[in-house]
Amino acid sequence: PTAEEAETQVGLGHDGMWFYPIDQANAESVPFGYTLSSTNGLLVVNHEYGTNGHVFGFERDENDELILSDSGEPISKSPQSLDDVRLSQSIHGVTVAEISYGTVFRGGFQFTREWSLVRGSAFNRRITVNTAVEFSGPVAGTEYLENMAENMPAGTVNNCGSGPTPWGTYITCEENFNGYFGANSEFTPTEEQDRYGFSDSGFGYQWHVYDERFDLNNEMYANEHHRFGWCVEIDPFNPDAKPVKRTAMGRVKHEAVAIKELTDGRIAAYMGDDQRFDYCYKYESNNRWKQAIEDGESPLDDGKLYVAKFNDDGTGEWIELTIENPA
What we know:
- With 327 residues, the protein is mainly beta.
- The protein is 10% helix and 30% strand.
């Protein structure tokens, strides 16, 4: 497909997903959707990755045989233009699709009862690397997100695990976001960039060759990489709402998030960093989630972030992370 066509299709690399019954949108209290049943709803799906081989195919010789690397793996073709990069970017992100369970007719005959896509639904949408997004929490409005290019924040990528919220939204987790950046000239990472694993070649997607946003040496987009690595909240029932990156939940290579309602009405969000030898985290809201929602605020913007410390005797403790005490 073209990049434009791909943005109207389900992406690749399915990972986290959740089903939202249509009647959930009108429920006064939404306990994760478990108590609701429906034959019609929204399926929200993450698209963690789609390699160059998935998108462009593989290199072949004059006999149409696959060309293999020294390790015996097929060699992927690479993007040759910005249009190619846009196609690669379009298969990443998130899909919201309305699906319905009912009788299917094929060739004029009743066939079976099964789930099918509701084509043309107002809820159907793709959220890709180039979709407009917003930031909230402590990093929003700071210099860390500003570029000299003055480009608006856009996109989510390498969307790994996910989690539903008690108020009916979807949290998608940006995991190995570093692999989509690279450099068109000699690159020396800063200490922070090295900690997140940025390199001149990334994972080989080569977006940086044709898309300036992903060139780590382009000073006009010096803070673009700060815009990725977050938990992103999506309202599946509001196609016009921008996805929101909730920076109070921390910037790591999020594997997934699981939200628990605490006995006092606050929420705790448990997260893992999928980088080897890294950490488990917990975010706790300061206020009851129902009250925050009623006040037009997000429970994910006002809270405390903790890291787990595991002891040799099988116990553990949560250590609060603050700007004042980064160690």
